[in-house]
Design goal:
Shape: elongated
Order of helices and strands: HHHEEEEEHEEEEHEEEEEEEEHEEEEEE
Low-confidence stretches: 15-38
Structural class: alpha+beta
Number of strands: 23
Strand content: over 45%
Strand order of the largest sheet: 17-16-15-14-13-12-11-10-23-22-21-20-19-18
Amino acid sequence: MNKIIWAVAVLAAFGCANKAAAPTAVEETKKEAKQEAPAFDLKALAARELPEGSKQSFALGEAKAEVEAAAAPTLNVEEKFISLGIPLAGASELTCFLYKEAIDSGATLLNVIKMAERKVEVQQVRPTAIVPVGQIPAIYLMLDYLVKGEQGMLAGQMKAMVFPSEVAPMMCIHDEVGFRQSFQRITLGLAKSLTQAAAATKSAQRYAELIVLKLGEVPVGFERETHVDGKNDTVVVTHLSSMFLPRSAKQLVVEDGVQTVVSDKAGRLLKLEHVKAANGEIEEQISVSREKNGEYSYKGKHSGKEVAGKFKAKGKDGVASGRAVAKAMKEQLLAGKQAEVKLEEYQPGINPGGTVETSYKLADKATRAVTATLNELTLSEVLDEQGYTQRMEMPLGPASLVGERVFSQGTP
């Protein structure tokens, strides 16, 4: 039920961007590319694919992994990453960077774009797919460009993939027109192999889910949520999120966020740590903790300013965490005991110095459809049997922002 965070972030991003930018900019760029395209058949080049090839094994310390390649991959160990050169039969080499520390999805995609802009004239940037590898998203980006050659401007295309795994973080690039599906197949295979080699499954997790966001047909972000048992009957829920929204045909607005919430057995908020970065720079950083008298103290940074103070929930039930919201949905709305539930929640992006009231109304019991309203923001949600969000939708200009759960494991 924390999906309201997405909607607020999207509205904030589009406050400084044209709401119709995504489809309009894409169409304009296609027209421009058509006018400047060279005489050779670019469409035929873009349609090229490679047949599935054999796997090549390679060692990473004591672990072994494999990747589809025409010959043994080459490894080059650097201070912060290992570069992996993957030879392909009938195409240029594919390069992957295997990082030694965790990476932020949005910031990494932004670095790919900035790197390209230093060398070529970027014409269009667009996210193309978000594919789950278990609970980890593999994010795909396409970048079309023009570069000056001996006989004039030449068209090029670069594909990128970012895999923000804690145990096997990587970013892959293939700089050649075409081979889009081949690139996805090869990099997904590598991601699965590295994840298995690193023994990524965390037995301490009681629940994990991955939700993918789309704006119309364009994948624009994800939220990954994990639950683990804490001390003294507490539950620790971690939200990792990224969004990459088209501002124009050539630009993306990117955000990365992490939020850790500790709640008690009843689902009341005890502690919260919230960090959000926009375009690679920290924009929000808030710490909240519940004190013995029921008050909450907060401290941090919001909208470029230092903030600190205390607040208290208006009701006796305290501030509801996402777990308390889900419990109320299951036991009150879905059970038919109430047609509307109002809860005090803490949304640091909206009001770091106090609670906000969210209203949840049952729209259709048979389909578990619920309408959530916060201030003037209204979302349509479909819940699972436990009261957690399976699908979320919010109209936004000519399209809709849709969040769809694509992976879940365990019990919240």
